[in-house]
Write a structure and sequence with these properties.
The complex is a heterodimer. By secondary structure, chain A is mostly helical. Chain A contains twelve helices and two strands; from the N terminus they run H-H-H-H-H-E-E-H-H-H-H-H-H-H. In chain A, a hairpin with a 2-residue loop joins strand 1 and strand 2. The radius of gyration of chain A is 25 Å and the shape is globular. The two termini of chain A are about 45 Å apart. Chain B folds into two domains: about 30 residues; about 35 residues. Classes of the chains: A mainly alpha, B mainly alpha. Chain A: Belongs to the YIF1 family.
Chain lengths: ~300, ~80
C-alpha cells in the first residue's frame, strides 16, 4: 500500500484545497500547491485514496467552465465510477497472473535498509547474524530486517548496469542506441536462465526450503551491484582498477551468497557449522557452493567485454 | 553473446521438444529410466535420478498438447518470416 499511499498523498496535496472549490473547476489545482508543506502526510492516505478517483477528473478540466454545473457534476461522478470499476477489474485480473501483493513486500524498503544492504553486498565480513526474522510465520518486511531479500536493489542495479554499459561503450566510440537494448535483453536472458537453472537444481536435490522464485530472482540480481562497482572503477581508473575491484566484489558476493543460502538450504544442524555426515547434506553443500560460485563467473562474463 | 528473449524462447521450445520426443518403452525403459523403475523406497530421499525421471515423465504428460500448438505456430512463423 506504500505505492498508492505516496501517489495519493501527492495528489491529495494538490486537491485538498481545491476540494472546497469544487464548484468552480476553473481554479488551477497546480498553482500554489508546489510550495505546500509536506508534513501533512498523516490524514493524507485515507482521504487521498478517496480523492484519487475524483483526482483525474478535476485535474483534467482546469479551464472548462463552459459545462453547466449539474451536468458537469453528473458527468464527473459517472466518469469516476466508471474509472473505479475499470480499476477494480484490472486489479482483479492482474492479480491472477502476477502476485502483486507479494511483489509489494519486496519493494517495502527505505533508505537505511538500502544503505545497509549495499554495504553488506560489498563488505559482508563483519556481519554476524544472517537470519531473517519472522513475525508470526510471515517474514518481516525488508524495511525492518537487513537480511530479508528485496527486489528494489536488483531492479535498480539492473537498470544502472545497462546505463553504465552504455556509458562504457560510449567512451570507446562503440555506442549506438540499439546496443542498449541488446545489452538489456542479453543480461535479462542470463538472469532468467540462472534463475531457471537454480530452480531446476533445487527441485532435483529435493531441498525443503521456503525460498520462492522471487527470492531467487532477488539473490541473482544482487550481483549487479558488484558489476557496477567494477565497471565504474574500470571507467575511471583503467583496467587494473577494474580487475581489482571486480576481484573484491566477486569475493564479497561469494561470501554473501554462501552465508545467506546456508541458512536457507542446509538443515539446521549443518547451518550452524557442525559437520553433519550424509550424502544429502553434502549434496546441499555442493549446491550452495555452486550457486555462490556462479555469481563471480557471471559478473566477469557480463562485464569484461565492456572494459578495454 | 547477443542474446535476445526470442532466442531464449527458441531454446526453451527446442529443449521441451527434445524431452517430449523420448519414447517410454523403446528408449527410457531400455536404459533404466522408465516409469516403472521410479518407484523407490518410501524414505524421504528420492534421489536425483528418480526426480529426473519424474520430471521427464511429467513434462511429457503435461506439454504434449501445448507443444502441438506452439510448434505449429513456430512453423508457420518461420515459413512466413524466415
Amino acid at each position: 500500500m506504500d505505492y498508492t499511499a505516496t501517489q495519493s498523498g501527492f495528489r491529495q496535496r494538490k486537491l485538498q484545497p481545491s476540494m472546497h472549490l469544487r464548484n468552480s473547476p476553473g481554479d488551477g489545482p497546480d498553482g500554489s500547491q508546489l510550495f505546500e508543506d509536506t508534513s501533512r502526510a498523516g490524514p493524507g492516505p485515507q482521504a487521498g485514496y478517496r480523492n484519487q478517483q475524483a483526482g483525474p477528473q478535476t485535474a483534467g478540466f482546469p479551464g472548462q467552465t463552459l459545462l453547466s454545473e449539474p451536468m458537469s457534476n453528473l458527468a464527473m461522478a459517472y466518469g469516476s465510477s466508471l474509472a473505479s470499476q475499470g480499476r477494480e477489474m484490472v486489479d482483479k485480473n492482474l492479480d491472477r497472473f502476477i502476485p502483486i501483493s507479494k511483489l509489494k513486500y519486496y519493494f517495502a524498503v527505505d533508505t537505511v535498509y538500502v544503505g545497509k544492504k549495499l554495504g553488506l553486498l560489498v563488505f559482508p565480513y563483519m556481519h554476524e547474524n544472517w537470519e531473517v526474522s519472522y513475525q508470526q510465520d510471515t517474514p518481516v518486511a525488508p524495511r525492518f530486517d537487513v537480511n530479508a531479500p528485496d527486489l528494489y536493489i536488483p531492479t535498480m542495479g539492473f537498470i544502472t548496469y545497462i546505463l553504465v554499459a552504455g556509458l562504457a561503450l560510449g567512451t570507446q566510440s562503440r555506442f549506438s542506441p540499439e546496443l542498449l537494448g541488446v545489452q538489456a535483453s542479453s543480461a535479462l536472458v542470463w538472469l532468467i536462465m540462472e534463475v531457471l537453472v537454480v530452480l531446476l537444481s533445487l527441485y532435483l536435490v529435493t531441498v525443503n526450503t521456503d525460498l520462492t522464485t522471487i527470492d531467487l530472482l532477488a539473490f541473482a540480481g544482487y550481483k549487479y551491484v558488484g558489476m557496477i562497482v567494477g565497471l565504474v572503477a574500470g571507467l575511471l581508473f583503467g583496467k587494473p582498477a577494474y580487475y581489482l575491484s571486480l576481484l573484491w566484489c566477486c569475493a564479497a558476493i561469494f561470501i554473501f551468497m554462501i552465508r545467506t543460502l546456508r541458512l536457507k538450504l542446509l538443515s539446521e544442524a549443518a547451518a550452524e557449522g557442525k559437520l553433519v555426515r550424509g550424502a544429502r547434506n553434502q549434496l546441499r553443500m555442493y549446491l550452495t557452493m555452486a550457486i555462490a560460485a556462479a555469481q563471480p563467473i557471471f559478473m566477469y562474463w557480463l562485464t569484461f567485454h565492456l572494459v578495454r | 553473446m547477443a542474446f535476445t528473449l526470442y532466442s531464449l524462447i527458441q531454446a526453451a521450445i527446442l529443449c521441451i521438444n527434445a524431452v517430449a520426443v523420448l519414447h517410454e518403452e523403446r528408449f527410457l525403459s531400455k536404459i533404466g529410466w522408465g516409469v516403472d523403475q521410479s518407484v523407490g523406497g518410501f524414505g524421504d530421499e528420492p534421489g536425483i535420478k528418480v526426480q529426473l525421471m519424474n520430471l521427464i515423465r511429467s513434462v511429457r504428460t503435461v506439454m504434449r498438447v501445448p507443444l502441438i500448438a506452439v510448434n505449429s505456430v513456430c512453423i508457420v512463423l518461420l515459413l512466413l518470416f524466415g
